[in-house]
Specification:
Blueprint (H helix, E strand, L loop, with lengths): L1 E2 L9 E7 L27 H22 L5 H16 L13 H18 L5 H13 L7 E7 L5 H10 L6 E6 L13 H4 L3 E6 L5 H8 L7 E6 L5 H10 L8 E4 L6 H4 L1 H10 L3 H46 L6 H8 L2 H9 L6 H17 L2 H15 L8 H25 L8 H21 L1 H25 L1
Parallel strand pairs: 3-4, 3-5, 5-6, 6-7
Antiparallel strand pairs: 1-2, 2-4
Helix pairs in contact: 1-2, 2-12, 2-13, 3-4, 3-11, 4-11, 11-13, 11-16, 12-14, 12-16, 13-16, 14-16, 14-17, 15-16, 16-17
């Protein structure tokens, strides 16, 4: 039975042929689903535990205040930081690791992303499209037929296809997805869902390996079983060595040599037939799990883009709140400022954006490592010098004292926020972060964040000018009212 698939964007999709199973190999149908491990319920920290964490946070902030500060003016800011930490971290909960390596686990994670998209994506049509994509995959849970793709840069003859179907006929129905000759160029070099959702690939190759064929091979989804049918009359070990040299990812064990005669095709495909007979019962579930994982990865990328859009607004708002606080209470040290920003209101909103559910100790420790790395790398000194030079060139004569310190604090907040965003994006979904690894990675994260913000230096300076003008206008209004 042959049926053409509709609605596929790629022009090289030809048809799908369904081959009924061999009568002497018929076995009772089975769903092929993996065993489901018991669900682990994540609970909230009990009330007494949250109180203990609040007391711990207050004690740490008090210790930092008493040992690291000399200016009494910082005490008010320290109290404000303590309040921020109380609000930001008091409601965090612990979650248990999810079942990532099962179908049920990936379904659960995909559905959890749908909930996050509902909060972050303003597109009204997006929820229906994503739900439909997930539903299409879930409809494959009861699939019995094996799905095999046959792709080539050359045309596939009817005789060769019939010989292949007969050679691979087994105990399960077999769907063969056949392609037109692969195009030699593409804008995306991306396989359609009809090919990406197959249980295995047969790549028909007539050596030598062309550049376009290599691009299509490298674009295959990860962990998709690939078999290369190498058609060459009198194929030698030298041709195999040439292929492995041109394509280092080639697997010799899945290289099928064929001399081009239809009668010999069955013998050439025998290793694939044995593999399908051995692995066929588990292949549909394995493929579904792989497709769900890939869908989850695409959604994570889309979700990260939406998070960054909202984070930019949070970053700009917070940096000027910090600058205003420093301008009111200027001091020589920015240590407590770094801690208050990293563990305060901004961190709370960032944790909500990235659905970060680390414990209070873990979140505070990660932010502390990033803040210390920023101070060690001299972000404050560099920003102060750059701000002074930039505003002198633009003729600003009123940039003195607390104003310079406020702008430096705003830039430092910008860098810390960027580094924390990269950190949360890297550890998204991780319930138990490796704090030692974060400590080692913090200098690199801060360095990359500082470099990224330095490239956007002009935008920061323009925002700073607007903020300073606003501050001057507010001072004028207050003076007139007095």
């Amino acid at each position: 039975m042959c049926a053409t698939l509709q609605g596929q964007p790629e022009s090289f999709l030809l048809s799908v042929t369904t081959v009924e199973p061999a009568k002497d190999l018929l076995t009772p149908a089975s769903s092929g689903r993996p065993a489901v491990t018991p669900a682990t319920t994540a609970g909230r920290i009990p009330a007494w535990g949250r109180k203990a964490l609040w007391i711990t946070a207050a004690g740490v902030l008090t210790d930092v205040t008493l040992h690291g500060l000399q200016d009494a003016g910082w005490l008010g800011l320290g109290a404000l930081a303590g309040g921020w930490c109380w609000l930001a971290l008091g409601q965090l909960t612990r979650v248990s690791p999810q079942r990532l390596n099962t179908i049920e686990g990936w379904i659960e994670r995909c559905r959890s992303l749908l909930d996050q998209f509902a909060r972050l994506d303003p597109d009204p049509s997006a929820p229906a499209n994503r739900s439909a994509a997930l539903a299409n995959l879930l409809a494959q849970q009861d699939r019995q037929a094996l799905r095999l793709a046959l792709v080539s840069s050359a045309s596939t003859t009817t005789g060769h296809l019939a010989a292949m179907e007969e050679a691979l006929r087994g105990g399960r129905p077999l769907q063969v997805v056949v392609s037109h000759p692969l195009p030699s160029n593409s804008l995306r070099w991306q396989w359609s869902e009809a090919f990406a959702s197959c249980d295995a690939f047969i790549f028909h190759l007539q050596p030598p390996l062309m550049a376009a064929e290599l691009r299509w091979l490298e674009a295959l989804p990860p962990r998709l079983p690939l078999w290369v049918l190498m058609e060459a009359e009198g194929a030698s070990e030298g041709q195999v060595a040439d292929l492995c040299s041109q394509w280092p990812a080639a697997n010799r064990d899945r290289l099928l040599l064929w001399d081009g005669h239809p009668r010999q095709l069955g013998a050439s495909l025998a290793p694939l037939g044995f593999w399908l007979a051995r692995e066929g019962d588990a292949l549909p579930a394995t493929t579904l799990c792989r497709c769900l994982e890939q869908l989850h990865g695409r959604w994570q990328a889309d979700l990260e883009r939406l998070r960054r859009q909202q984070w930019l607004a949070l970053q700009q708002r917070t940096q000027w709140l910090v600058a205003a606080g420093v301008l009111i209470t200027p001091a020589m040290s920015l240590d407590l400022l770094v801690l208050s920003v990293a563990n305060g209101l901004m961190l709370r909103e960032m944790a909500q954006l990235w659905d970060c559910r680390w414990s209070l100790e873990q979140l505070r420790a990660a932010a502390g490592h990033v803040g210390k790395a920023a101070l060690v790398l001299g972000v404050v000194e560099w920003s102060s010098q750059a701000i002074t030079t930039a505003f002198r060139l633009h003729g600003a004569t009123w940039l003195v004292g607390g104003t310079l310190q406020a702008l430096s604090a705003a830039y430092l907040t910008r860098v810390i926020s960027h580094a924390m965003a990269d950190l949360m994006a890297r550890y998204v979904g991780v319930c138990e972060p490796d704090l030692q690894a974060i400590k080692a990675e913090a200098p690199l994260l801060v360095a990359k964040a500082a470099e990224a913000e330095r490239l956007d230096w002009g935008a920061f300076l323009q925002e700073a000018r607007n903020w300073l003008v606003q501050q001057e206008g507010e001072k004028g209004i207050q003076a007139g009212g007095a």
